[in-house]
Amino acid sequence: MDSQDSGHMYFTNLLSQDPQLDPTYGGQSGNSPMTIDASLPLPPNEPNGVRKSVRGANFTPEEDKLLVSAWLNCSLDAVQGTDQKHSQLWEKIFEYFQQYKETTNERTIKSLIHRWSVIQKATNKFCAKLAQVEGLNQSGMTEQDKFEKAKIMYQSLEKCSFQFEHCWHLLKDQPKWIWRATKDVPPRRKTMSPSLTPTSTRCSAATEDSKAEKGKRKAQGKQAEENLQLRKMKYTLLEESRAQEKEFYCLKAEKMEYDKEKEEKKLRLEDERLRLEVEKMRIEAEKMRIEAEKEQSKIRQEDERLRLEAEKVELAKKESDQRIMMMDVSVMPEMQRIYFQQLQTEIMMGRSNARDLD
């Protein structure tokens, strides 16, 4: 290709960089909106070896940027420049596109021309809105604010969002883009001063009247257009105000919902704290009950031990009493006889008292 020299590779390199080439969203400096190549004639023939196909997949942003780069490279050809015939120009654009594309999508010259027409039409309309915003010269608005305002105005008028921001960033500061806007503007006619004749005077008067009438109609049309634009801007501002009001109420509702959730969470935490306190008290009560049962069990065991001990003592006493009662005191010496007789008497009296108590 003729445009593969190092200078033309500038626009190809743009594609490998971030599409946000410049954080400043201006570029028009208050000039009138640009209109370029309003109608692009189709080339008479496709290049040899190019297969015509039915409508393919939608163009991707990368394909759009490659098409813009191809148009800039081929349009900026230093030898032929913009005097190239449209068929030759688009053949070069097609070759450039085919050389650098990274997708498998098949594109014909006709599809590239149609896509470029869509891009430039939408971009021109967006530039017009941006110029209107800059013309208002509102204080306190940054370039980003103007850019966003232009997108809102574009969407309000076109009923769709501006979809070629990635292309606008590549085109907005390029001399070729700006030059095409002024290329076809006809120069003003110089005022001639021939010698006047009655016929020429009448013709001049009629011409002046016609010009005055045309100027008047033009001024009226311009005023009507300005009034229409003002009404559209007022409508846009009203829509923005409504959108802001809606956003305010949405934020208020979100805050109320957040406060409600926060309060519910607080109540849930308090309920959980109370539940844990109750559980703690229940555990403490259970521990006290278990301790009390253990103490009662010890008391019962001690009572049982004492009862068994008493029974054992009672049994031993009975055995001792029985031995004493079975003794033959008659063979004992006098003193022993008297002692054991007294013991036998006490034993008998104790048993008698026990029977009386029962």
From TrEMBL:
It holds the Pfam family NAM-associated. Residues 161-347 form the No apical meristem-associated C-terminal domain. Residues 192-204 have a biased composition (Polar residues). Residues 17-46, 186-225 are annotated as: Disordered. Keywords: Coiled coil. The keyword Transcription regulation does not apply. Residues 253-319 form a coiled coil. The keyword Transmembrane does not apply. This is No apical meristem-associated C-terminal domain-containing protein. It comes from Carya illinoinensis.
